[in-house]
Amino acid sequence: MSTVSDFSLSTPSGADAGLTPKQLAAKYGLAVSGKRPSLPTYVRQLWARRHFILAFATARLVAQYTTAKLGQVWQVLTPLLNCSVFFLVFGVMMKSRDSVPVYLAWLCVGVFVFQFSQSAVQSGTRSIADNLGLIRALHFPRACMPVAFTVIQLQQLLISMVVLVGIVLANGQMPHMTWLLIIPALLLQCLFNTGLALIMARVGSKASDISQLMPFILRTWMYVSGVMYSIQSAIASWPPLAKTIMALNPATIYMDLMRYAFMPDSFNKHIYHGGKDAAGHALAQHLTLPHHVWLTAGVWAVVAFAVGFVFFWKAEEEYGRG
Amino acid sequence: MADIAMSNFREAQRDVPNTATTDPARVPTVVVDNVHIVYKVHGAGSGKGSATSALSRLVSRKRSPSIREVHAVRGLSFTAYKGEAVGLIGSNGSGKSTMLAAIAGLLPPERGAIYTNGQPSLLGVNAALMNDLTGDRNVILGCLAMGMTPEEVKSRYQEIVDFSGINEKGDFISLPMRTYSSGMAARLRFSIAAAKTHDVLLIDEALATGDQKFQKRSEARIRELRQGAGTVFLVSHNNKAIRDTCERTIWIEKGELVMDGHTDEVVSAYEKHNRA
Fold first, then answer.
1. Is residue B80 situated within a structural domain?
2. Could you report the per-residue pLDDT of B49-65, keeping only the tens digit for each?
């Protein structure tokens, strides 16, 4: 059984004879297998895969509904159905719509914007586990996966945007200069979502239990962010510190920016001054943007992206193991 | 020193088939230095799996009794050189696939170290690509993921499809990959991975499912890759495939090295051992 031949083909010969394996590896510049590249190298590798990320995202988006009969129609139908459920429950049954100007448009903007972050987190959490086959078969910077899934969500949001513009116009909101603000708001949110997806991708790849927890965390986040009702009036009597913390919630910030961009009139205190009408019905109260809203949005975006990227890169060699 | 290394390198490239044994100036590409690999298997054993016991473990910070350790590779050492095709043989569960996964960097060694030239690519039999996407999407995405530019992909695309032979019996490349037979999928995967020149290519039974004609083609491609100064590792239970492709073979049993030498010698000994 143990007939190891006396002469081995492994033994280095000639000038290399007598070197230990480690010395041999060092002499010929061999690197430890599966070692994590340095951060600048990693960024370069990721940038070189930009075509892959885009092509992967597009292919995935198209394939998503291939088994459904209605196919791509669901991309528009799903957000619309979401909006109608929320409108029914919060708008009609719980009378949220009385206190918010142009409630339907306000609600839809909120739902679509929150959905963007929510689905980026959800798909980011699963991005490594769901693509283990690809990760084990081919070698590429693993950050491609969470980034590509955020791109998918962005593509989906852009499709929803067409619906959204229709809803906003149908609610009597005319195109305005502020619509240009949609672009920077979206870019910042994108950056923020990518960071979040990167963080969740690493967490999700280690602890698969987290995907059981995510629906609850995300639902809590949604309810405290004021997607379906005005958080402003709900926390009016809270202590200042609590109010500040609530105002710093990134989901609220990005929703408010988008709502302002789409419907600047809702933020005009001369048009919507609140109070009650002659018959005693509550009138819509104008909305307000928190202080330094763009700065907060920018800081959230940059911090989330930087932290997420480094956090994900730190475990680069470990994805696909197990 | 660097000059000598450089000239050695050129010499090794010029005359590949002989380098394996006679040429004193062999350039190592994979160095496996006394490697131990231990798997931690979750959910093994008959430990109590109830929620309360899981909670009490969390509180007491004890390791779950259901985690078992499997010592798959025990102190393996070998060095592979440029232009070599190395076969890995051994019975099921002897640690061959584990060894390849470790060389690819997918499994961390418990002790010891593995050094490689560049990033090795592992081609496994169940390494699925994107099953819900069509064959042609898989070709394009696979090539892009390996770092090719869109132009390169465009120019190589037809070559890859032809090599895989997927379209020999009709237009299968535009069908989702989940509709492929295991042989077809394996062929497409190999064709994609082989489209790039690899410094180190690890093939784990990936060719076993292909038909005769494809095996001939892939053997030719492996020879090409070796001549491009790459190193190829081949795990297979098909001794003929090993004999045809590799001139060196390593025999592993229970995670330990049994024999490392010329293919004829090692495979004969292996066959003799199995008959006994």
1. yes
2. 566 766 776 666 666 66
